[in-house]
Design a protein that fits this description.
- It is a single chain.
- The chain is built from 3 helices and 7 strands.
- The longest helix has 13 residues.
Length: about 170
């Protein structure tokens, strides 16, 4: 099984299941990534020497999220996580081991059926430095609305119920 096949990413990492209910139009917008692409997202829990965590607000999120995004074909997940950190925060991260892999079922809310499966891997990472103004971040204008270091996990964390334990815990 390849690194980008479901179940092939970080086989020894802690795994959890996540069900994501989306309207049909959002499901269709993601279908090419899921069926012809990698169906894999990589993110990083980036901490600095003071223990702060780097988070971003994107154009699609309800709150703060980990820097991350789609893994490109033939790209290693850890490489994708480092690339996404650089694009979304301006930081150069040293990516380490996976913290957790979420096995995701994307459910078409209007049909009440699983449309496809994917994986979301979160890596531990280290970086330091100043995070620039959001206007200079992301690969397209307005993709990143804000980016900054946090001393503690914010209340308005997107997918907070799922991620909070992995952000407030010690490095693995």
């Amino acid at each position: 099984m390849s690194d980008n096949a479901p179940g092939g990413v970080a086989p020894g990492a802690l795994r959890e299941h996540q069900s994501i209910r989306l309207p049909s139009d959002r499901i269709e917008a993601l279908r090419e990534w899921a069926e012809e692409g990698t169906a894999l997202t990589a993110a990083a829990r980036v901490r600095d020497p003071d223990g702060r965590t780097a988070l971003v607000k994107t154009s699609w999120s309800d709150g703060w999220v980990l820097p991350g995004g789609a893994v490109e074909p033939s790209e290693l997940p850890a490489t994708a996580a480092a690339r996404e950190v650089r694009e979304e925060t301006g930081l150069t991260a040293r990516v380490a081991d996976p913290v957790v892999v979420f096995e995701q079922s994307y459910v078409d809310a209007e049909r009440d059926a699983v449309a496809f499966e994917a994986e979301y891997v979160v890596f531990a990472a280290r970086a330091e430095g100043r995070i620039p103004d959001a206007a200079g971040l992301g690969v397209s204008p307005d993709e990143i609305r804000a980016a900054r270091w946090f001393e503690a996990v914010p209340e308005n964390l997107h997918d907070g119920d799922l991620l909070r334990a992995y952000l407030s815990g010690e490095d693995h």
